[in-house]
Amino acid sequence: MSSEKLLIDVGSTYFKVSSASGIEQHFRDFNKEILDDLTYKCGETIHAYKKEDIYICSSANGGLSTLIIGITDSFSLKFATNIAFNSGINIIDKVIYQNIEDYSIPSDLIDVVIVVGGIDSASNIFGEPLLSYLDKLKYSNIVYVGSEQDAPKLQENIENLVVLPNIIDNRLHIVEENLKEYLTNLYQLDIEGKEDIKNLYTITSNQIYSTPYIVNQTLPFIDTKFTVVNPFILIDIGGATTDIHYSKDLVDDNIVTTNEYDRLVFKKLGVYKSKESLIFTAKNNEFVYELLTHLKVTENIFEEQSEKALQVLMQLAIFLVLCKMSHYKQAYINLKLLSINSIVLTGGITKVLADSEIEDIITFFYKKILNSNHKPSVVMDHNYDIWTLAIINNKG
Amino acid sequence: MKVVTGVVGNDIHVVANRLIELSLNARGFEVFNLGVNTYLEEFFDAAVETNADVLLISSLNGEAEGWSREVKLLRSKYKTLDKLVMVIGGNLVVGTADAETIVPKYKKYGFDLIFHQVDLNTGLDTLEEYLKERKIV
User: How far is A230 from chain B (nearest CA, A)?
Assistant: First the structure.
């Protein structure tokens, strides 16, 4: 922790303030604007620091949504999906262009549509069916990252289309930087665009970053603070989302990228704001009732508002996230969970659950789902060191 | 002329794969080498992304036959691969069998040219002639 800086993390449920005297954590008052709430609860601390010494990150908005239109599963859609997830974007749907007419149109407003397909020497990939689909779709931004030969025609026909270099190079390898930068900036603008967050610039002169982004950037330095053995995963259970960050070694994938760690954001697996969807997901998991019995509670716990209920929800969140990453649920990514040496937990969970309660869930998961006695070491970030390390490393 | 190539299935004959790439390059083809351990879907997807003219699958350990049974069905799901020339070569059977038995079988699976235990250059000469005859070159 820095002694000369004041670090603030605005989450969907809590905000945390890290200063020379330690870390304060406050439950947010949703009837107040963030700045008013923050000033009311920690005004004295905040006023003791200069604007340039205050660093803020936020995960309060839960990220952007995207729909990806590509031409194959193995390349264009796979690459764009990987980049979107790594930029903290939630994927609403993926559309294979050749069957675009068979897809239903999502009714929600999509924050950004990604269109991708073909290496640069391929041409005439997209045509009328794309335009007709887009006509019916509600979206705020659209970006094209496919074959450069199709770009002029698409730019002529699609309003406000942003054209970036192809994410597929001429050897069919992924090129992630341009799209990643675009999506990260969009996410950043979204955060800054929220009135509540904008107001925070009255107390800081530094850029406000998204929390998952800076946490991910810090993972290569994690062993400076913790005894973590690679490969590892980091689980951050929050009020609105659960983020998982993982070493690339855990993925059986032939995508060659420059990043050592990827991350996924599960938008609907939080213990406060998205509690209902977490419970819904839990009820649809055939092992959850067995888990509840193991925890010596019944499903009535879902209706309760107690410390015990919160503990159970957090334990469920750990279990469900691990399920989503395992072969049990075929998802975007299946991690090699039997190769994990450490599981790092950060966020509010470290204040609610004891090490033994977390180990209990992890053991249950490995036994039930993977039929294994594998026991990765559990590392608890009790003092939010990962976040403070992250924000300090990203401040420049 | 674009060629997508690679070794199908759980086959790691990387040297043969590299030789095929070098030989195709020397003959002026634009090669997209997917390497070893490649699934059928990846071959077809690569052909779509590159707008390839030829798909050249190789197999050395003989397991191609198992995979090839899926070729017709899988290809029929793609709407833009009608003109793709399908070639397979290497050792196309587990155990022993002669070309007279194997070639008709693979024709039925949906391949245009089949080279079972045929020298690489002979196979590629045949491919070039085939493309010329059909005015694909």
Answer: 27
Q: Which of A15, A24, A6, A338 is nearest to A203 (CA)?
A: A6
Residue with tokens 């069916």: A129
Cα–Cα distance between A246 and A83 in angstroms, integer?
15
Taking the domains of chain B in order of start, what are their residue ranges? 2-132
Question: Domain A65-176 is of which CATH architecture?
Answer: 3-Layer(aba) Sandwich (3.40)
Substitution target from A74, A81, A170, A253 for chain B, most B beta carbons within 10 A: A74
The string of pLDDT tens digits covering residues A19-45 is 888 888 888 887 888 899 999 998 888
CA dist A260 → A60, A256, A264, B84, B98 (Å): 26, 10, 14, 38, 49
Tell me which CATH code domain A227-380 carries.
3.30.420
- CB within 8 Å: B46 and A117: no
- Please name the fold of domain B2-132: Rossmann fold (3.40.50)
pLDDT at A260 over 90: no
Q: What pLDDT does residue B34 have?
A: 95
Least confident piece of the model among A149-158, A161-170, A236-245, B15-24: A236-245
Mutate to test the interface with A, among B49, B50, B75, B80 (most CBs of A within 10 A): B49
Q: How many CB atoms lie within 10 A of CB B115?
A: 24
Map out the domains of chain A as residue ranges. Answer: 1-61+194-223+384-396, 65-176, 227-380
Distance from CA of B64 to the nearest CA of A (A): 20
The residues of B annotated as belonging to the active site are: 11, 13
State the Rg of chain A over Cα. 22
User: Which residues of B are less than 8 Å from A73 in CB distance?
Assistant: 41, 45
Task: Provide the token pair at B6.
Answer: 């690679």
- Judge if ipTM > 0.95: no
Kindly report the CATH number that applies to the domain delimited by A1-61+194-223+384-396.
Answer: 3.30.420
Interval A128-178: pLDDT, tens: 999 999 999 999 999 999 999 999 999 999 999 999 999 999 999 999 999
Is B32 within 8 Å of A172 when comparing Cβ atoms? yes
Chain B contact set for A76 (CB, 8 A): 49
